Amino acid sequence: QVQLVESGGGLVQAGGSLRLSCAASRSIFSINVMGWYRQTPGKQREFVASITVGGNTNYADSVKGRFTISRDNAKNTVYLQMNSLKPEDTGVYYCKSTPYWGQGTQVTVSS
Q: Bigger pLDDT: 47 or 41?
């Protein structure tokens, strides 16, 4: 079992940046894939980005070139660097390590 705690959300203007962190309660070295998802009211939770223990990454088309996922196994932490933010990036961002989810962190991008 692993507990995930997200942080780093907030309010930012369009074009700005935020870095989200996901701290795990135990070593993530053995966790092959960790990912970020987001959800807005009335919509299903959607995939944003994922990273394997080997560093292979995958991104949703809507965030490619703007978001970067990374992991620091020594710190048991996964990051999501978000640049050139748009109002449509607004939502609650969740960290996932199947089958576990964090509690989410709110990101609000104003126009």
A: 47
State how far the Cα of 109 lies from the Cα of 88, in Å rounded to an integer. 8
For the chain, what is the total number of helices (H) and then of strands (E)? Answer: 0, 11
Which letter does DSSP use for residue 59 in this model? E
What is the per-residue pLDDT across 66-87, written as a single tens digit (0 to 9) for each?
Answer: 999 999 989 999 999 999 999 9
Rounded to an integer, the average pLDDT of 36-52 is 95
- The torsion region of residue 61 among left (phi > 0), alpha (psi -120 to 50) and beta comes to alpha
Q: What is the 3-class SS of 21-47, one letter each residue?
A: EEEECCCCCCCCEEEEEEECCCCCCEE
Question: What letter represents residue 103's amino acid?
Answer: Q
